[in-house]
Amino acid sequence: MSRIAVTFTLNGARRRVRVAPMKRLLDVLREDCALTGTKEGCGEGECGACTVLIDGRAANSCLIPAVHADGATLVTVEGLARRGGALSALQQAFVTMGGAQCGICTPGILVSAQELLLRSRGRVPGDAEVREALAGNLCRCTGYQKIVDAVRAAAREAMPARARAARRAPKARATAKARRTAKRARRAR
Amino acid sequence: MLTLPRFEWVEPRTLDQLLDHLAAHAAESLMVAGGTDAVPNLKHRLHEPRYLVHIGRVEELRFVRDEADGLHVGPLVTLADLARHPVVRRDFATLTRAASLVAGPQLRNMGTIGGNLCLDTRCTYYNQTFFWREALGFCLKKDGAVCHVVPQGKRCVAAHSSDTAPVLITLDAEVEIRSRAARRTVPVESFFVADGIHNNVLAPGEVVTRVFVPARARARIGGYQKLRPRGAIDFPMLSVAFAASRRDGHVADARLVVSALAAKPRSVTGLDALLADGVLDDAAIERIAQAAAKQCRPVINIPYDEDYRHAMVPVFVRRALREALGLPPRAAREVVTA
């Protein structure tokens, strides 16, 4: 069967691969591009472990023939980190808040959350909004609350400093004090 | 891991190229736009086309136009874009709701309104791997000759599972269908037929080119209620759509559609008689709920208990009607009758 040339932008770099038409985008990312961060869970579009951004929109790469992605701009979990490999605010929040446990769902959840953060730039999405944005990602470990907390913490982090100050202005001193106390408690441990 | 079968990828850029291809190879082609339903089905070998025709690059099929006669929507508009469209949100809130209840966010980003309308029917004995189906001796929808749902059944009863179709029916929407030779328009209600093997009127070579919601549906009140095991991802095991126009406290043009039970969405009949003088009060809601339950006969075509689905018909009809009136889902005392 004849192979088809497919060109796309992957995590900021142009890539050109030749693929069989029935090869899924997920397989091309993992096998041809050696980016194994994107996982396969169910292979049927239920679990979201294979989520990647296609032209800024979260989609299940296990349901997309690679040829479908010709000309697209793709972002995988490997593309979220900052230049040099430092974790992004979102990734760091997952580490800090315990949003990742066994880790198989984490790449997909990070990518779905990234779409939400790009969409809701400048404000912190509510609990329900985060849950709705992550409704296509299953996690069997965490019970989701820590994931939701981590996404919201990352959104707060991403807000411009002035907006952040305005948000907490009424209780600024109290929260700052609470944070200092918490920090001290952590150190003591 | 389930692999895709072998196929040739065909990617028309214009509607003309698409219609030309279909005119020559309709029987060996499967059209795919978002691929969210077609791709899992391909993995299960439910379709084995020689050509996979990706219509996602036919840009002339991607549009939302708000005109005086109504809303024109191209079949390639994704469910996510449809649900976010300001005009749809303002004038057709139930359509927004139905579109945003389909599957999960990733699937709505890829899945299209055209694909959701033409969604293949679903059944316990059909949506399985080739291995699974072969072990049971296949079924009459694919590869076999018997129905495992209705013993001795000669007609496929796989469930119509589109969320947007019931709502579009209540809004008197129409679909425009084109082939190389002709162009026709059919109401969404007559688009579906009671045959689970191929549950719509599309003939080989035909393609849906437009969904049209008439302007008279703009001011309608409405509700859409979907029963599913989880709050996301799942197909409906029961769905209820309602719409009506409201003038000084009275409702007219009431339409109620119950779906996900059989191959075709069911329009509940006799609403005008049940709505004495167009008054939609608690008593009328109850009459309609009971009438709907009488008219529906679920079968065990999807893996959920049919008695439960039947018992939920009046409950979800009540909720849909109350949603249309802006009331909370439950009255002070809700009677559940089997």
From TrEMBL, chain A:
Residue ranges with Basic residues bias: 164-189
Disordered: annotated segments: 163-189
GO MF annotation terms: 2 iron, 2 sulfur cluster binding; metal ion binding; oxidoreductase activity
Membrane-spanning residues: none
Top-rank taxon, per record: Bacteria
Keywords: 2Fe-2S, Iron, Iron-sulfur, Metal-binding, Oxidoreductase
Domain 2Fe-2S ferredoxin-type, chain residue ranges per copy: 4-80
InterPro entries xref list: 2Fe-2S-bd, 2Fe-2S-bd_dom_sf, 2Fe-2S_ferredoxin-like_sf, 2Fe-2S_ferredoxin-type, 2Fe2S_fd_BS, Beta-grasp_dom_sf, Diverse_Oxidoreductases
The name this protein goes by in its record: (2Fe-2S)-binding protein
TrEMBL record, chain B:
Protein's UniProt keywords contain Ribonucleoprotein: no
Keyword Ribonucleoprotein: no
Molecular function terms, GO-annotated: FAD binding; oxidoreductase activity
FAD-binding PCMH-type domain mapped to chain residues: 2-218
Organism domain of life: Bacteria
Alphabetized UniProt keyword annotations: FAD, Flavoprotein, Oxidoreductase
Pfam families with a match to the protein in the record: CO_deh_flav_C, FAD_binding_5
Name this polypeptide is given: FAD binding domain-containing protein
